[in-house]
C-alpha cells in the first residue's frame, strides 16, 4: 500500500531530486512532486512524496525534526484532498 507524505516549509531552492534523496534513505520512493505556482512556476514551499506504507512511516518518524536548506521541515501523512464544490458560471 502506498502512502502520501506532505512535506512543508521547503526552501525555494529545493528540487524534486533533493527531496527524493532525502527520503530514499528510508526506502524506495514512488514519486515526488513539489507544488508550483501556476502563474510564476515558482515553488509554493510544499510538496508530496509517495512511498510504501512501512517506509513512509519510518521516514515520517525520522524526518519530523529534520532541516533542509536551513529550514525546519513539516512532515506528516497527507490527508485526502477535499472535494471542490461545482463551478457555477
TrEMBL record:
UniProt key word Amino-acid biosynthesis: no
Superkingdom assignment: Bacteria
InterPro entries: Nucleotide-bd_a/b_plait_sf, RBD_domain_sf, RRM2_NsCP33-like, RRM_dom, SLIRP/GR-RBP-like
Coiled coil: none
Keywords carried by this UniProt record: RNA-binding
SUPFAM superfamilies the record matches: RNA-binding domain, RBD
An MF annotation (GO) of this entry: RNA binding
Keyword RNA-binding attached: yes
Domain RRM, chain residue ranges per copy: 3-80
Protein name per the record: RNA recognition motif-containing protein
Species this chain originates from: Desulfobaculum xiamenense
Phylogenetic lineage: Bacteria, Pseudomonadati, Thermodesulfobacteriota, Desulfovibrionia, Desulfovibrionales
Amino acid at each position: 500500500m502506498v502512502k502520501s507524505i506532505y512535506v512543508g516549509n521547503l526552501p525555494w531552492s529545493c528540487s524534486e531530486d533533493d527531496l527524493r534523496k532525502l527520503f530514499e534513505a528510508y526506502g524506495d520512493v514512488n514519486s515526488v512532486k513539489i507544488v508550483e505556482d501556476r502563474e510564476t512556476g515558482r515553488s509554493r514551499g510544499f510538496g508530496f512524496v509517495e512511498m510504501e506504507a512501512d517506509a513512509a512511516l519510518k521516514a515520517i518518524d525520522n524526518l519530523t525534526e529534520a532541516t533542509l536548506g536551513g529550514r525546519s521541515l513539516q512532515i506528516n501523512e497527507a490527508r485526502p484532498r477535499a472535494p471542490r464544490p461545482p463551478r457555477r458560471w
